[in-house]
Design a protein that fits this description.
It contains eleven helices and nine strands. It has 282 residues and is of the alpha+beta class.
Length: 282
């Protein structure tokens, strides 16, 4: 049973997938302000924006499946920059596709606070906000789940998912525009590979920037985690291709930044530094 309360879908018009900063229709804040979802911390249906504007800025993250590369990687960046975000008095709320068990597992793995995370089992808020549903080719004789899987595989190959292959390769080749991701004394475990110390990347690529294979190693750890607990992270595979979005509001509820994901591994305008829109000084 869907316990959410939102504006009717008829009140919402479709919007483009562009990354931009503008006022658009539908009114993003109004939709979110009337949205209730299950909060992971206590299992209660609560308003997503409850208490959200008692701060300088409000960051709303609409995530894809909680077992998706994008959701896990986004949470990793938030954890990395949590002190800076706290200092800027930015309130964060996220809605991800899954159930409460998905949310608990996600938070335990990523460190994302359970009280900040809400779950939408049927991606209804994504539809209301006009977010990209992903490739949606209907293959005859296949079930809804099988169709979703096949469409996901095509998106991983870059079909209906612009920028995905380029971003995958960036994880292997390195990126001198991106910061170093793994500290020299950090040990990367829980992958099919033997435990690997961060200093390894310094030897093969240098320091103070994203070294070759560094990001790919973090993604491999995420993939290992999800595949080891697949049914928990993805209780319903019907929404595997659904993409998310980022919405930043000021203290008056005015939309000052948005990004609408156009493909897999496209959750930010700058994947080299996904939180630059929050942290860069102007």
């Amino acid at each position: 049973m869907d316990s959410s309360k939102t504006l009717s879908e008829e009140d919402c018009t479709k919007v483009s997938m562009n990354t931009q900063t503008s006022a658009i229709s539908p009114d993003i804040y109004s939709i979110l302000n009337q949205t209730q979802r299950l909060r992971v911390s206590d299992g209660k249906i609560q308003p997503v924006l409850e208490g959200g504007l008692n701060t300088s800025q409000l960051l709303i993250l609409i995530w894809s499946q909680l077992g998706d590369f994008d959701s896990l990687e986004y949470a990793w960046w938030l954890q990395r920059e949590k002190e800076h975000l706290t200092a800027k008095e930015i309130t964060i709320r996220a809605i991800g596709i899954g159930d409460r068990n998905s949310g608990i597992k996600f938070c335990n793995y990523t460190g994302f606070p359970q009280e900040w995370l809400f779950v939408d089992s049927e991606a209804k808020v994504h539809k209301l906000l006009g977010l990209y549903r992903g490739l949606n080719i209907n293959f005859p004789l296949l079930s809804t789940s099988q169709n979703a899987w096949l469409n996901l595989m095509l998106m991983c190959a870059g079909i209906g998912s612009p920028g995905t292959l380029k971003e995958v390769f960036r994880g292997y080749t390195g990126d001198k525009k991106a910061p170093q991701l793994i500290a020299d004394d950090e040990v990367i475990q829980d992958t099919p590979l033997p435990p690997m110390k961060g200093s390894f990347f310094k030897v093969v690529g240098g320091s103070c920037f994203q070294r070759p294979f560094e990001l790919a190693t973090l993604r491999l750890r995420n993939m290992t985690e999800v595949l080891s607990h697949w049914n928990t992270y993805v209780p319903d595979s019907s929404y595997l291709t659904q993409r998310g979005g980022t919405f930043l509001f000021d203290a008056q509820g005015k939309l000052i930044y948005e990004h609408r994901d156009r493909g897999i591994l496209g959750f930010a305008e700058s994947m080299s530094n996904p939180l630059s829109f929050l942290l860069d000084e102007t």
